[in-house]
């Protein structure tokens, strides 16, 4: 990596020939020597976020070309092909959260009473039963079973769109076009069909009565808590499909035969059909109606479709390829259009993430289909893959050609006799099913299951990290890089190294002139696409030839470096001008601009990055590395004495950057340290982000990788401090104290308990600047000016 030219010429003149310069005041030119003039037509944060945005979009666009390196297809035989994608299939099930063991259920359980039958409707060809079945420990599936009155030829799981109930999917309630009522067409042909209820896009239950309710779709509310625990609403529902297939196998054993199994879905159900067909090899035929297309624009879709690392390995084509050598039908058709989350109703707060669902463009469908077709062709099974357009791709699901191709995959011959339209009749004796109550039950089950994962997660992390075995610094340092790399790769996500060294290309301009210090806005290149930047504060009493320590002072959410410097205005309430206070004590101060500013402009960076196994901190860590590289080149900086101090989102940075940037000699987390996993996954606590608008905050599987205690372990043996106001609304004291106690114990058992501390003060979400300042001066070996 190319280093910034050093030393700074003008400063060399100053330190070498001090008689040329007034002794009482340091004078640095504008721009700083060795840097170009900084000229920006927009604020630094906007320029920075736009650059990261370009980088992220470029990575998404390039992802199809990079995916082949993750695959090692063997086309020598069908069995060899299946074996060659075994690890890919396992990784796919992991990233969608379909990892928990399913329970062995007693079969499809009929919902009936002593007074009411499970049969809610019927026609000569089949009966419609209200059923449920066991899935996971505490999670069931609930919906309808269409049971043919004659010979059963196959068994199928039919998945409606998330806006449709099972009753709508079979025409018992209005809202679904006749041709899209696919379960009826299947059951009329002697196929046993089960239809599970999906998490809907309504928001009736998305909240808690002791906190508040939100406008988040049910799918998003479950997604948020589950994502933090390495689970997903998608994975839970794929498990429901696989549990239905378990019951199909059970029926086959009872009946002494093996019937073909299929899955079909429309809209959100099509996503689940595609994913289920890829995940479960027992499914012989898959029909995907209204989902399949190029997926590089997934960041525009609802957040409950966000899958960590998906596009590094699995576009729609790669997922469909895992269905081979079995049958896959792609139908381009109309689906319910979603133009955003539901508007808040009375009693709800707006906190849902943006996201839309449109009908797939035919060109996109065709392009993605062309990517998967060669896989089937090389297997000699092109007949097992079909692309059908309903109308021009905007007609209703359930076209005759798609149906025929799906039946072909089930090895069912089409009856030449015309099958009359199905006319279901409601039964007077049928049990009354309340779709709203059923939705609530399904929602509550997923919620409770995820909360139990949360409650058990600390034990899991302890078993993984085994912090008690590190009784010396030497033992820890021998092992520390392994968990450090795991957290970086699995939780944060690592950017690829640039192919060519990137010059720092530093630009500066003077923005502050104070009688005690000078301030320069700085911008430098991290990659050709995006920059790092901030404000450098240099004390005026810097002596010739002197190298001083640096404290990096990090702002919080929607902040700027200047917020940490100003001694007036709204920002002073939180930051107490701690950057200015510290430069007045004689330290060199660098206040970085981090990219978490601009609301949806920065939050969508997370959406654009997660599919590539990246997060906001995938960019922030290299930004800090490059910044320290430049700071270290300055002739007045002691590169061995650079510390970090961040408030709020800057406190998040304190446990996500210094642990991986070893040049930071200490880290102070202010106004953020707490039981972070619970804060992101607890569905019944007012402190939880589950309820709030920061939809970018959730980190994949953090509950099973590292909480704040484990992130803080990675600082050891370097000093680490927490600053905590008793009235800080980020978390209750009890959460903070319990999580920090683990850190304290970890340091103490290694004999370095004097290197970590927590300061409580009677105040809110703010810099206190008492114990932390003492910590800074001690660990930078600095006697502050005036002391």
From TrEMBL:
Coiled coil start-end: none
Superkingdom of origin organism: Bacteria
InterPro entries in alphabetical order: AB_hydrolase_fold
Keyword Magnesium belongs to the record: no
Entry's Gene Ontology molecular function annotations: hydrolase activity
Database matches in SUPFAM superfamilies: alpha/beta-Hydrolases
UniProt KW keywords: Hydrolase, Signal
Signal sequence coordinates: 1-21
Protein name: Alpha/beta hydrolase family protein
